[in-house]
Design goal:
The complex is a heterodimer of chains A (about 260) and B (about 260). Chain A is mainly α and about 260 residues long. Chain A is built from ten helices and no strands. The longest helix of chain B is centred in the C-terminal third of the chain and has 19 residues, at about 245-264. The chains are: A mainly alpha (about 260), B alpha/beta (about 260).
Chain lengths: ~260, ~260
């Protein structure tokens, strides 16, 4: 059994099993209900050939990326502020704990009314999806900074501003990182919902629109593309974290640490 | 750079000092510290010795300016203590909680200098000096997580020495170390103190450590309402030998003091 603990071998085995189960399902239920791996690959080839798949992936990724970057860059300073200033926290926390339970998808109609049917409403949605996760994580990080670190800095002569910049922010980096990484996941969920309801481009549109033509194979292509870009962006973020933020204690690019 | 030069010696005056964490009406306060009186001379090595929970850390935190007093007088030099100051440096018990894990050894040691915007060349000169003094040369580029417990406490020591505070407040700094490392650290601290002439207030619950290091030992009674009940002079020459007859005798006297207090 020891050979199975090898990462490469276990990964290859896993995917062989997934594809086998998929193929069996396709054989049992027929290609209209479950298109098999080969049929899906063929459809993917067609969608790549006419340019639509890469375009849809690009547009979905662009929406997620812009909303995520904007959301994170608003959320991190806000999280720091709420964490550091008690009076702000007293007012902000009940509101945060109320609004963070409202899923982004629930806002789609309102965002369409407020921001129009163009890109703004989708980016605003991703921004919303990112905002509260990153705020909550940053806030948690700020509150988790050991009192001794702040005391040490203060008795070494640091001003309040220097304590924020040289102690609180670096100590909170791992929490911010976890926040933006989780937010990436919810952003993909939100964008697919938004594209299903109000878009004529993107992976969500592809998945939703395929039902009109009963092209379950296209739906499969959309789902797999989503899984793949999600996986690779998360890996990229993880790798970047490990390379750039090593000194802040981010040591693994794996989503789950063993 | 000469080590003998130091900031002007400041006497720490503590008179009728009380501390309570309660917000209750006066007269009904529950005191942690009640009526603490000590005067610590500049350059002295003073040990606060007492059982766990007696409030010795609270007293140290009050001198540091982290915790405010309830009543009484607490002065460093001529000034009442209100907040932390660079004349008082703190070596914390938990190095992991107080060192900055995202900075390497040298950057940790230079932290206070950087906050004061000391030039890079000057920072390097000062930090190198103290890194060598605490025996960490060769480890400058390492991060705290790569160091042993004893080495982390050396980093803390070098960090406060670099900042040139005249008073070192040490809260059971060797409490979490193994016996052998602790002995080495005690010897080196004693050596560094004699070399730099700092005022040291050292909190511990270890009688042997107290007798090994201190010029005077303030005995704190068990809380609540704890205070410094007795002060023992330790007249022995440094470096001290814990095997010596007089040493053991004083240790036993202090032990008997605690035994007596707890049987009541």
């Amino acid at each position: 059994m020891k050979i199975l603990t090898n990462k490469w071998i276990s990964n290859v085995l896993l995917w062989i099993m997934v594809i086998a189960v998929w193929q069996i399902g396709a054989v049992i239920y027929g290609p209209d209900v479950i298109p098999g791996p080969l049929a899906t690959l063929k459809s993917a080839g067609e969608l790549i050939a006419d340019g639509s798949l890469l375009h849809y992936i690009g547009i979905s990724f662009y929406r997620v990326f812009v909303g995520w970057v904007l959301g994170s860059s608003i959320a991190i300073p806000l999280g720091l502020l709420i964490g550091r200033v008690t009076i702000v926290r007293i007012f902000a926390e009940p509101f945060l704990n109320f609004i963070r339970f409202i899923p982004p998808i629930a806002f789609i109609t309102l965002f369409l009314v407020w921001f129009g049917i163009g890109e703004q409403s989708k980016i605003a949605l991703i921004l919303y999806a990112t905002l509260f996760i990153v705020i909550m994580n940053t806030l948690t990080g700020v509150l988790a900074v050991e009192e001794d670190k702040i005391r040490a800095a203060r008795s070494l002569g640091a001003s309040e501003w220097q304590i924020l910049v040289h102690v609180v922010i670096p100590a909170t980096v791992p929490y911010m990182f976890t926040g933006v990484r989780l937010a990436m996941g919810t952003s993909y969920m939100a964008i697919i919902g938004a594209e299903m309801i109000a878009a004529n481009e993107g992976l969500g549109y592809l998945i939703w629109n395929s039902r009109l033509f009963f092209r379950t194979d296209w739906i499969f292509v959309g789902l797999i593309s989503l899984g793949l870009i999600g996986f690779f962006t998360d890996r990229l973020v993880g790798l970047l974290g490990r390379r750039v933020l090593y000194r802040y204690g981010i040591v693994s690019s794996e989503p789950i640490r063993r | 750079m000469s080590l003998a030069i130091q900031s002007p010696e400041k006497t720490i005056t503590i008179a009728n000092l009380n501390k309570s964490y309660d917000q209750a009406v006066k007269g009904e306060l529950h005191y942690i510290l009640k009526d603490v009186n000590i005067t610590i001379k500049g350059g002295e090595f003073f040990v606060l010795l007492g059982p766990s929970g007696c409030g010795k850390s609270t007293l140290l935190n009050m001198i540091a300016g982290f915790v405010s007093k309830t009543e009484g007088q607490l002065k460093v030099g001529k000034h009442e203590v209100h907040k932390p100051g660079q004349d008082r440096a703190v070596v914390f018990q938990q190095a992991d909680a107080s060192l900055f894990p995202w900075l390497n050894v040298r950057e940790n040691v230079e932290f206070g200098l950087k906050m004061k915007k000391v030039s890079k060349a000057k920072r390097q000169e000062i930090s190198s000096h103290y890194i060598e003094l605490v025996g960490l040369n060769g480890h400058e580029k390492k991060f705290p997580r790569e160091l042993s417990g004893g080495m982390k406490q050396r980093v803390q020591l070098a960090r406060v020495l670099s900042n040139d505070s005249s008073i070192l407040l040490m809260d059971e700094p060797f409490g979490a170390l193994d016996a052998m490392t602790r002995r080495t650290m005690q010897k080196e601290l004693s050596h560094i103190w004699r070399k730099t002439g700092k005022t040291v207030i050292f909190v511990t619950h270890d009688i042997q450590e107290a007798v090994l290091l201190g010029q005077r030992i303030g005995i704190m009674s068990r809380g609540p309402n704890s205070k410094v009940t007795d002060i023992y002079d330790v007249p022995f020459q440094y470096p001290r030998d814990p095997g010596q007859q007089d040493f053991i005798k004083l240790e036993k006297t202090i032990q008997a003091h605690f035994d007596h207090e707890y049987t009541i």
